[in-house]
Amino acid sequence: MRLAHAAPDPQELLRTSDAIRNPVNSFSLTSTLTEYRGGKRVDSSTLAIYSKPDKASGLYGTLIRFLAPARDQGKLMLKNGNELWFYDPANRAGIRISPEQRLLGQAANGDVATVNLARDYKAQLVGEEDTADGERKQRRCHKLLLDAAAPDVTYRRIEMWLDVADARPVKARFFADGDRLLKTAYYRRFQQELGAERPTEIVIIDGIDTGWVTVMRYSDYAWRDVPDAWMQRDYLPRFRPE
């Protein structure tokens, strides 16, 4: 007699995937965003990212420092909980911004901050299916539907494919209100970083114009003791990188 296997807990699958994307302790890295139109590079941005998990809430605070291009150098963005703030040292003004607003190409402000999806979304397991990964190889995946559990998250709904072998993120589709597809993302180039095999490249494709592509690359991973003060909006005018 063949025994039926219990379906995995979708929220636990999502937590496992979060742990693959996000180091468990405070860390820093460099993120390089490159925008392509019709295969031609049209823009790029380089960011220093400092992330610190809040042990009580499970959410990450993230400070983002703009390194390049020169016109943006020194600007800051802070994600504290699900609030997002932008600071421009040229006019010493700090303003609250939307996580959905585009930062560069298909990358939204909320995409460059460290996000704990298992805290922000309720997961539902659709089933298993084969899907092409970012290298166009077929992968057997758990397909999850993620519905926003809070009003201030970046996306209303996400479809996510996780490898059945280890819950690695393979692919995700992001939707706005009204089920409008905003973009599709592929997680690629897994490398050993800070104790786990993590995706070091995300390819983001526009939901309508598939020739509009943004590539986010991560490098320079390091454990970092991020000061609590860096996660405070009032500290932004006094911030100096160590």
Question: What's this, in brief?
Answer:
With 242 residues, this protein is mainly beta. Helix content is 7%, strand content 52%. It has one domain: outer membrane lipoprotein receptor (LolB), chain A (Clam).
Structure in words:
This protein is mainly β and 242 residues long. The chain has one domain: Clam (outer membrane lipoprotein receptor (LolB), chain A), CATH 2.50.20.10. It has helices at 10-21, 117-120, and strands spanning 27-37, 40-53, 60-68, 76-80, 83-88, 93-96, 102-104, 107-108, 121-132, 138-148, 157-163, 169-175, 181-193, 196-206, 212-223. The strands form 2 sheets. A 13-stranded antiparallel β-sheet has the order 6-5-4-3-2-1-15-14-13-12-11-10-9. The protein has a two-stranded antiparallel sheet with strand order 7-8. A hairpin with a 2-residue loop joins strand 4 and strand 5 (83-88). The chain starts with 9 loop residues before the first helix and ends in a 19-residue tail after the last strand.
